[in-house]
Amino acid sequence: MRYVIIRDDDTNASTPVECLERLYRPFLERGLPVNLAVIPDVATDATTPDGLREGFLRRHPEGKTNSLPIAGNPALVSYLHDNPGYHVLQHGCHHDCFEFGRKSAGEVSRRIADGGACLREAGWTAPETFVAPHDRLSPAAFREVARRFRVVSTGWFELRRLPRAWWPLYTLKKLRRESHWRIGRTLLLSHPGCLLSWHRRRDQIREQIALQVKQRRVTVLVTHWWEYFPATGPDESFIAVLHQTAEDLAKDPGVKVITFRDLVEDSIPLN
User: Most CB atoms within 10 A, among 42, 81, 177, 182?
Assistant: First the structure.
C-alpha cells in the first residue's frame, strides 16, 4: 500500500468559504481527508520573498490592524468544524516572509505559542503537525518545532539549516536516499515540490503525481487554494485537474489518502 497526504497551504481569516468548498467537496464526498495548513493570525501586509503582496490575502480589514486571527472569520471556522474531513495544521503564526528562518529560539518559541493560542481560540486542539511559511526553518526553529510537534512537513532539508546534533541522522537518511526521517518522536517529512501548482503544465500534472506516488511509500501533495482563484476569476481548467486527481486517488486500490495524524497514530512506515 502507498499513502498520499493532501496538504493545502495558507487558509487564513481572509479565505472565502466558497473557495475551499468548490475545491474540496469532491475529496470530502469520496472520504479523502484534506490537511489544511492554517495561518493562525495572518499578517495583513504579508509579502512573498520577492516583496509582492501574498495571493492568499483576499479581503482588507476595516480600520487599521496588523493581523487577522482565524477566529475573526466565524463563518470559515464553523465550516471547517462542520466538515470533519478537514484536518487543521499550524502554518507558522503570521506568515511573515521566512517567519521561521529566524535565529532567535525565543522569538520562534513565542510565535509557536501565539499561533497555537489563536487556533485554540477558534476551537481546535493543538495540531500535531507544523508547516513553516515558505518551507523555511532555521536550526533554532527546527529544535523548537520538534520539541512541540509530532510531525514537521517541509519541502526539503539542508545540512546547514539543521541543528548540528541532527547531522549524523540526516547523513544516514541521505545515504539511504530516503524522503522522510525522524528525530526522536518527531517525523520529518519532505515533499516532491508543489505538483498541483499553477506554474506547471496542466496536461502533465496527473502523470507527475502518479509517478511520484509510485516512487514513495508516503507522498505529500502540496497545493495552495488561492492559486485556483486568480483576480480574473476561478481557473476552471486548474480546478478540473484537482478534481480529476481526487478521482484518480479514489480509484487506485493501491493508494490510501491519509492525514498526518494517521502517520503518528497508526505507525505507518515512512519509506
Answer: 42
